[in-house]
Write a structure and sequence with these properties.
Layout lengths: L9 E5 L2 E4 H17 L6 H18 L3 H22 L6 E2 L3 E2 L6 H22 L2 H4 L11 H18 L6 H18 L3 H34 L4
Antiparallel strand pairs: 1-2, 3-4
Helix pairs in contact: 1-2, 1-8, 2-3, 3-6, 4-6, 6-7, 7-8
Length: 227
């Protein structure tokens, strides 16, 4: 069983690229989770938990340490998101107890972005020194410490915004996915890189779907159709 979590355990080789079982499983389940969330499907959260566990082991082995730590955050918040989507508060309900889409104010957006940039600086500095401070656990330097830290902190923010269904989360995900696709390609996990390019499409699709729902909700509340 432990061999499954080793990135050197190869499932198949295609066009000269060796695909590990770990990468294949993480990408497949992560893709399913993203497809589900773009369609407001609650089952995105348990699928996301399983994907995060797999990516934790993958990112450790390719020295993307901030991304590795991010998976722990994802596991906890995905469980929270699962509860949040299935137990909305009374004033958040629309259409058969569905949590409705809302938007950030300009001030809220600026606060989130400023916090993300500050956290990027702090986490990037920490990640760049891990191999010096904890050489037994981290035998190699962190790859892309600041760029990886940026996608990590912004992923945390995007997840916090996704749980209460804030529309702006999808535009953050689009930026994150573009940068992540580049990093994963350079680090040689090319299927993960391809997945994140596909995630860019899902981010645009999610933004489109949630914008449509947001406008629908606004219309319903204007007409007094939702109680």
């Amino acid at each position: 069983m432990t061999e499954f979590f080793d990135i050197n355990t190869i499932a198949f080789t295609l066009w000269g690229y060796s695909m590990s079982y770990l990468e294949l499983a993480g990408v497949s389940i992560g893709g399913l989770a993203t497809w589900l969330v773009a369609r407001n499907n609650t089952w995105t959260w348990p699928a996301g938990v399983l994907s995060a566990v797999l990516f934790f082991f993958l990112f450790y082995q390719i020295q993307l340490y901030p991304d590795m730590f991010l998976q722990v955050f994802f596991i906890v918040t995905y469980l929270r998101g699962w509860w949040r989507w299935t137990h909305p508060q009374a004033d958040e309900v629309v259409r058969q107890r569905e949590l409705r889409v809302s938007r950030l104010t300009t001030r809220e957006l600026l606060v989130w972005l400023s916090a993300g940039l500050l956290a990027t600086l702090l986490l990037g500095t920490f990640a760049s020194r891990l191999h010096e401070w904890f050489p037994v656990l981290f035998t190699k330097p962190s790859a892309f410490p600041y760029l990886d830290s940026f996608t990590t902190t912004m992923s945390i923010i995007a997840t916090f915004l996704m749980i209460p269904k804030k529309l702006e989360c999808w535009y953050l995900w689009l930026i994150i996915d573009l940068i992540s696709a580049y990093m994963y390609y350079v680090k040689g996990v090319k299927l993960v890189s391809l997945e994140y390019l596909i995630f860019c499409y899902f981010a645009l699709e999610g933004a489109r779907n949630w914008t449509r729902d947001y406008r629908t909700y606004s219309h319903l509340y204007t007409k007094g159709a939702v109680q």
